[in-house]
Amino acid sequence: MSEDEILLNVKNLHAYYPSRKGLIKAVRDVSFTVKSGECLGVLGESGCGKSSMALSLVGLFNRMAKFAAGAAKSPGLLKEFEKEEEERAGTRGQVVFRGHDLLQLDNEDLVKIRGKEISMIPQGLTHALNPQYSVGMQTGEPLEIHDENVRLLGMKKKVLDFLDLVRLADSETRYIMDPGSFSGGEAQRILIAMALISGPYLVIADEPTSALDVTIQRQIMNVLQMIKEDFDVSIILISHDAGVIAELSDRVAVMYAGRMMEIGAAVQMFHHPSHPYTMGLMSSFPTIAMMRMRAGGKRPTLRGIRGEPPDMTELPSGCPFHPRCDYCIDICKTEFPEFREVETDHWVSCHRYEDL
Ligand code: SF4
């Protein structure tokens, strides 16, 4: 991948936050790139660090970590966090976006980028919109913050254009309504319009369909597909659902226990995964052949992955997947495998990559 194609270059990113049980190492030494115009899918089980990574990319992780420290309400933990914060500021590593390391910027400079050049479609629809302000006002907020020349009438027209674009029905009438009168699917459309309205280079969509029923999920996926095709924008699509990732992603990054396990072209990851965890994930979803067997009265079984994801405060030594891995050998229990490029644009972290 040539340097000039790369929009975002994340190097050795770490992100930790405290909990009552101890320090959660949500993101550990994660590196990846996002090219201009591509969709990178980030796939992994719930709690593997995907959302913490997303918050780190937009400079919001430290704020979340401070809330977590307050919630932990343990003087010992707070002390530990303060020490961590002093030494590591919650996040460390590099997040280079269009030539700037976002982890080095102060809040004033970050605010200029967040919502304008990078925007986020957050997880948790019910909390993402402010019930006190109209939908029109909220959708136009990024313009108000980032464009000092914007005028009220111009803003309203642009907001309506974007609400129409994400296919929000009867947008003109509903411009002045508060979010409480919108369904989950409509709220998600509004959040997508809000993420796009300032013309960002990168949109991070964190589980954009997880709180929706199946038919609405389909509609939201169609909107995201349209954005991918019609806008000159890169997307990081985060999901625990391989179906969602498969539909939109050009490349796929697989995370487990805060670490990156494998990154490669989507076709390769779904048809010829190389890492034992990716193989397990892919065997956890029903295939069309299985559906046909079922229709024929047979009972196919999904292989899946044995065991449970680890407690993030007590992570296994060595490769974090080793307690669940059928290919584990002695070195896996003590040494974390290097994350290396095994062929062009294909990265794997496994001691046994060559044998599998
Ligand atoms: Fe399995 Fe070892 Fe590879 Fe980890 S490093 S995935 S334990 S074979």
Overview of this protein structure:
- Helix 6 (135-146) crosses helix 7 and helix 9 (184-196) runs parallel beside helix 10 (214-230).
- The chain is globular, with a radius of gyration of 21 Å.
- It is built from 14 helices and 12 strands.
- Among the domains are: 125-201 and 214-232, 3-Layer(aba) Sandwich (Rossmann fold); 282-356, no CATH class.
- The model has no long low-confidence stretch (mean pLDDT 87).
- The strands form 2 sheets. Strands 6-7-8-3-9-10-12-11 form an 8-stranded mixed sheet, sandwiched between helices. It has a 4-stranded antiparallel sheet with strand order 2-1-4-5.
- The chain is an alpha/beta fold and 356 residues long.
- Helix content is 37%, strand content 22%.
- Iron/sulfur cluster is lined by residues 276, 319, 321-322, 325, 327-328, 332, 337, 350-352.
